[in-house]
Every structure is written in structure tokens, then in C-alpha cells.
Amino acid sequence: MGILDSKVPSGPLAEKWTKHKNDINLVNPANKRNIDIIVVGTGLAGGAAAATLAELGYNVKTFCYQDSPRRAHSIAAQGGINASKNYQGDGDSDYRLFYDTIKGGDYRSREANVYRLAEVSGNIIDQCVAQGVPFAREYGGLLDNRSFGGVLVSRTFYAKGQTGQQLLLGCYAAMNRQINRGKIKAYNRHEMLDLVLVDGKARGIIARNLVTGNIERHAAHAVVLATGGYGNVFFLSTNAMGSNVMAAWRAHRRGAFFANPCFTQIHPTCIPVSGDHQSKLTLMSESLRNDGRIWVPKRLEDAQAIREGKLKPTQLKEEDRDYYLERRYPAFGNLVPRDVASRAAKERCDAGFGVNKTGEAVYLDFEAAIMRYGKEKALTSGLKDPDKDTIRQLGEEVIEAKYGNLFQMYEKIVDQNPYKTPMMIYPAVHYTMGGLWVDYNLQTTVPGCYCAGEANFSDHGANRLGASALMQGLADGYFVLPYTIGDYLADDIRTGPIPTDTPEFEKAENDTRERLQKLMQAGGKHSVDYYHKKLGKIMWNKCGMSRNEKELKEAIQEIAELREDFWKNVKVPGSIDSKNEELEKAGRVADFLELGELFAKDALLRNESCGGHFREEYQTKEGEALRDDKNFKYVAAWEYKGKPSDAVLHKEDLVYENIELKTRSYK
Amino acid sequence: MKLYLKIWRQKDADSKGQMVDYELNGVEGDMSFLEMLDVLNEKLINEDKEPVEFDHDCREGICGACSLMINGEPHGPDRLVTTCQLHMRKFKDGDTIVIEPFRATAFPVIKDLIVDRSSFDRIQQAGGYISVNTSGNTVDANAIPIEKENADDSFYAAACIGCGACVAACKNASAMLFTSAKVSQFALLPQGRVEATERVLNMVRQMDLEGFGNCTNTGACEVECPKGISLENIARMNREYLQASMKG
Question: What is the ipTM of this complex?
């Protein structure tokens, strides 16, 4: 076991980033033209980094498995992006955003990184507005804000329920500008299959052209991985179908440490599972908790009658409903952080109060908000004594303006009208706080290999607050990485182009081919999805919303067995040298089968409950998470040693100089 | 329910394709259209046949990857949804469903139901951006107030997901709705006005170079657009183009 150096600069918290920028090496504009950078992944972090690096003068190559950078899964983020602008004058500041994020992450993130994130957050909004991102505005023409969970201010900027889409299209536009200038070369429908190291430094990647099946070598002076999270290890999640851990895992196998793999965010408000055929889950934005109230019936017999279809939720009287979040957490109510809201929903459903056929759903009800907005709208429209129907109609119009696309999505999937009957929701895997370990410069433990956005172990500790993923992705990509990578590249101004005809590239390519062939030539018993679904079940049942020692140990063994079976018996039709989605999926699932075991191992090691990681053995009498700062105030970074069971633990102790460690309370 | 599927199969861009018939049992109303195809593919794999390839990713109607002509309509019979959000409850037992790729000269078939839409990327690269540096030295976001109505209209135009349904629906395979959505988004914002002249000329030039057809105002694109992008955008682009041509 070793100790990791986070390279956090010295000095007062609020001055660290400025001081660091002044201290690090720069590359002059003429030399930047001689330096190549590979960016893998073109979501918010990768797209932003690629655009800014190209604009600074570097030669950038981008890679994405989608047919266009515009389709990266950042596009699906709904609710918004945080920034400490304090436009609402409600007491927000960089410090408060920093504090909320550290507390929201249950004191498992690095102070200096989080402060930097808060510090650059305002600039993101300025930047995006300048790029033509059409954020929501008030009638006076200024930007509008709303609230998200775990905070007491309104600091979230949004574009209806499509904020991620608008921000990603902003990045995509910035990339297009650089593609047009010839500074970015975009390799779409390409997947990174390995990281190539030369003399211990990341110097390129092996990628597969997904249309032709060609295996290609690409060299650069540095490699940036911005490939998103690994929520699909659970099979069912709100991630896109193609979201995967392959790039990060390949880097891990080449020496990049993987940090806190067990820190997963289970989002409280998703559309419940409807059947075995389900391929993915759909999120209903956290912004809905601004106006929706979460409840289940107070009495078990009412819950049962609802499940059997004998009783409708709208027939249940106010006093027969249990608004359990408002009851348990009066200060934050329906806007408690995600981990807290998810566990509370599970607790009620486990106790028998679930409201759909499977018993795994709670209500998210807009009735009160519709009537409240309707009354306000009637007043401002000059309507005297409006009847109930008019108020309702006006209120529904207000709700539609705010969340129209989400309500429509719900109706299409569930076939119920959420304006008339409460939505049914249940927690689902949404985001992974864990990822490749990076230092303050966002460099992994492989020199020259950087990691940004959700793919790194990030700034969110053990739980991410809503609307902070977009903030982190863009902060890393636009404002952090383009500076810090220069410090490393300053040593490369005389290196010249990196050749690809070297033994290192040769070997990496051969390894890749061998692996693909092995997948194609396995026993051919079961499809890739068969294994992926089995893995997902183990993960959800034994490494999901609550975990315990016994089941984690079982999970470790079951995943190892499943992995062995996979390599013996998986069935991949088609050929290597053509478009072959089953082969793409097989490679991804193979890596999930390794990551899954490390995930369980990490969860087993962490004998405490913090954020999204809830160990049943460590809870208070009221069922709240019981953190252990004495023994677990560290980042667990794992070094690859062949098998997940042999992975070696390295620790980064988290030092809190500016915030006092406290038990998180939202009561 | 039981379905009779007629699906376009094509090995690669250079091969000739054909329609192939499949029967599928056990389809449920709660499945999305793509989940129905997942079930078909699982069956094909188990029968040692090659599965049907189609583009898909987010499966929540926003990435724009999924496409498909379903019974002659882009994204199928439902309105304001992408194929991934189309549910099988819109069909009934015994239905025959014809599934083809989006067809246009500028969208060549890659394999089965997958087409190459990189022509859309190239239209965007020709001018679908505001030329500001991304390193952050700009004015405060609230320095320029923007009339809410314009900001909202800009947003509605920007909601385009680039799926190509407009092109597939159009008898001329025109990309006017797609191109005009981006032109409009920026034309409606003060930040975008600065380069408005160049932008519309460059984007339209690229659109023509890619081999898309002209607009003859039939409005099929607006009807089939899963995001409800309005024809008004085409009118706005025509105005912008005319103004720009006179300036230029």
C-alpha cells in the first residue's frame, strides 16, 4: 500500500488555483503547433477540452463511439447547471457552493478541487451565454434560476428540461469551429481499445473503426480520457446504451489507479422498471422536486388496494398520505440530496408501502403546485374569483412551461397523464462518483494520461449534488485541463511527432487483436446481453442501494464465476472486420465483469456508510448513514495487478483545513 | 402480441440490400420499439443468425441517434417522439411493420438500418457556431438582457436533435428544417447576430454541396419532426439568406 500525492498547491484555499496557474509551466504558441493531444470522449468534458486545447493551438484528435460528438450522453442531462453567481441575491457565494458540495459528498472529496470548481463555476455561465446557449430567462431579460437538492439557495441555470443538450450543443459548436479551422480531427464511430505507453508515458491509443472494423494506431504527446461513468455495470441505468468503462478500464490495466469504484449515485426519481424486456431506465429530473411532493399511503391496506388497482391515488385524502421526506427532513423536505431521498423511498417500499404492481414505486405529486401556480397566474392575469377548473388549467399551463418535455416523456413511457394523476417513480443507477484517480492537475497515475468529467473520481465525494455534473464536466474541460496539461507538455516541445511503428504500438495492437479474437472464438452458448443482465442483477441486489458484508462477499465470488463463464461461453456473431455491434458490446461487458468485482471489493473494504455507499452494519437508530472519519477519511485508489482480487489499495488521506467534519444532517 | 416484420438488410455500403421477413411473438405494449428489436435480435443470435443493426444510444429521445422509417414514416406513427420513445402499444396483434433506414442521397446506408449522417456535421462545421474563444474571458452572463420571447424561440429552434427525420420525410430530401433551426437559434440572439451574414451563406452552401434537395413548402418535415421544430425557422432562414445575399 502506498500513499498518493494529490499535488494540491500550498497557500490559502481561495488563492490556490490562481497561484497554481501562475506557477506552472506554459507552452508558447509556436511550440503548441508541434504538440498533439488525443481526447477520447466528446461529451461536456471531452468536447470542452478538445475545443479549448485546439483554440490554444494544440493539434487535437477526438474519438467517440457515436456517429457524431453531438450525441454523447451529456446530452441527456435534464435539470440544470450550478454556478455561484448569486443573481438571486439569496446569499450564494463560491464558499457556499464549495461547502454544499463537500457536505453533499459526505466529506469524501478533496477540498482544493472542489473550491476550484466553485471558483470557475460563474465563468461557465458567462462562457455558455457568449456561445449562444439559450438558457431560460425571466421577463426582464435576465437569466432565471431554480433550486436543486441539498442546498438552500437558487443557483441552478437551466434550459427547460434539456440543459445538458443545450450545453453539449455549445461544446459541439465550439468543436465544429475548430474542426472547420483544421485544428481538431474528429474520429467518430471509433472506440478506444487500449492505451499505449512509451517509456512509462501515455503516448497514444489503439482504436477500432466501428464501421470498417479496422484496428488503428493513433499517437500523441498526451491522452485525455473523458469517457463518462460506468453506471451500466448495473445493466439497467439511466446511462445511454453505449456508455461504458472500456477506455478508463484499459488505462487502469496500463497503470492508472481506479478510485472509489463503489461510490455510485442511485437517483431517486426515475420511471420504475416495467418488465424483463427493459433495456434502460429513464430519469425524471430532480428539478421536479422543486414542485412535486413525494408520498406513499399512510396505511398498508391503502397501498395494497392501490397496487391491486382498487383505489386511485387521487381518491386518497390528504391526511391518509405520508409525505415521508417532509416528515423526516423538515428543513430540506422534498429537496434532500439524492442518496437520502433514494434510501427513504427504498425504506418505504421495503416496508410494504410501494404503489405500483411490483411494489417498487412512490408518488411524485404536482397537484399542490398546479393549484398554487394556478391561483398566482389567475391573480396576475386579472381574473377575479376564478373557479377551480380555471385555476387548474392555468396551473397546468405553468407546469407545462417548466417541465413540459419531462411530462410528455413520462406519458409516452408509462401511458398515464401526470397532470391528472401523480407520477410513479423509483430510484435507479444514474451516475458514478468513482473513476480514475487524478491529482490536482487531473493527471492519472500514468504520466501524460489525463482524465476529466464523470470518468475521473471527481469532485463529488460519496454523493453528487444535482446540477453539479454539468458544472464539473465543463469546468474540467474549458477551464482546468487546458491549463494544467501545459505544465506536463512543456517538457515535450522538443520531442517531435510520436511514431506509431514502434514495438510498444505493435504489442498493444497485437494484444487488442488477440482479445477480440478470443471474444469471437468463445463457446457460443449465450448472448452478450445474457451476461450483462446477469451481472446487473448481482450488482443491483448485492451492491446497490444498501450493502452488507455477506452479500458483498457473495457478489465478489459470483462475478468472478460469471466472468469465467463469459470468456468460455459468450456468443458473438459476425466478424471482426466489419460493423459488429455484438462485438462492441462484448468488449464492454468483459471490462464491466472486471470492474464489477473491484466495485464489490471496494464496497466491502469501506466499513462505514457515507453518501451513496450505505452499509447496513453502519447506521444510526433512525436508519441514517454512520460515517467513520477516523478510519475511512480517504480516497481508495486501486492498482491493477492482473485480477480484481489481487488489486492493491493505495490511500489518499483527505485533509480538511477549511471545513469542519460534521455529521450530515438535512433535518 | 405477434408481429410480422419486414426489415431492410444490407451487409455494408457496397452491397445490395433487400427486405427480409421475420415473425416475432411475445411483444408487449410496454416495450419501446427498440426493445422489440432487441427481442428480435436475441432470437436471431440464438438461431445463429446475424442481428439487425440500428443506431441507438440514449433511448430517451434526446441524443438523436435512433432513426428508422416505420411503415413509411420517420420514427413511426406516433407524433413528437423518436423511435426509442415509440411504444408497442401503438400497434396491435397481427400487424405487419415495414422497417427501413432513413433514405436520402446525403445519408448513405452503412449497414442494415444504419445510415451515415455526417453530412449534418459538415453543415454545422460550416458555420453553426459563434466565434468566441472558450477559455472564459468574456462578459458577465447578465450583461446583455435578452427578450424572453426571443430567448424562448431560440431555445425551441436549438432543441433540434439532428436525427434527420426531416430529410427522410421530405420528398426532396431537403435539410432546410435542420439547417434553419441552427441559423434561427443564433439569429434570434444578440450574440449570434454578429456573424449572421457569413453563417447563413456558409451553412446553406454546405447544405447544397452535400446533395440535399430544395424546400417546396410541403411541411412534411414539421409534421414528422420528433421535437416539433417549426417551419417558421425555414421562413426565417430564407429572410436571413436573402438579406445576407444582398449584403454579400
Answer: 0.98
